Amino acid sequence: MATHRRATAAVLVTLVCALAATGCTTAPAPTASPTSTGFASDDAAFAAAEATFRSYITASNEVHPEDASTFEDFLSLSTGEQHAFDQERLEKYHADGYKLTGATRIVKVNLDSFNPDQRLIALNVCLDVSQVEILDSSGTSVVSHDRPDQQNLSVRLTTDPMRVLLIEGSNGADACSN
Fold it and tell me: What CATH number belongs to 39-169?
């Protein structure tokens, strides 16, 4: 993303210098037009997927199982299997009187693959969940004692519209060790 911004800035600086040196005006420089996937480039697709996943984690950190009105924003960012899983989990937490404390933090997000024909993006993600606790109605943690502080995940997103489709533990590339 930073490389893309630097390249864009370099193009703009070159264009401004050329116009200043010649004193002429030209037609506006062409901009990248969206491809059939709706993204101007694979980098743009990755940026959109990363932003969507970051929004998903931010929204998950704002969920309060005791207050079902906090579910909507979070659930609006998922679809398919992940949406069904999230909805079922939140309904169970709500019914059981669970409370979430702490926040999940994104450590790293890497592009795994982009399949424009299927409108799917796969990310390798490392999450830090060390501060997250799930408490039952008596205030006792229901989190497994052997849960790792960092979670290496494979995240699949659909691109039309951009939504989290599936999150699974990853047996592939380890985003937490890279």
Answer: 3.10.450
Query: Which tokens belong to 101?
Result: 């404390």
Q: DSSP letter string over 52-74?
A: HHHHHHHHHHT--TT-GGGHHHH
3-class SS of residue 159: strand
How far is residue 119's CA from residue 169's CA, in Å, rounded to a whole number? 22
Residue 107 in tokens: 């450590």
Domain spans of the chain, in order of start: 39-169
Q: How far apart are CA 26 and CA 35, in angstroms?
A: 26
The one-letter amino acid code at 123 reads: L
Residue appearing with tokens 């059981």: 96
Structure tokens belonging to residue 62 = 């704002």
What confidence score (pLDDT) does residue 137 get? 92
Instruction: Decide: pTM greater than 0.85.
Output: no
Average pLDDT in the 133-150 region? Answer: 94
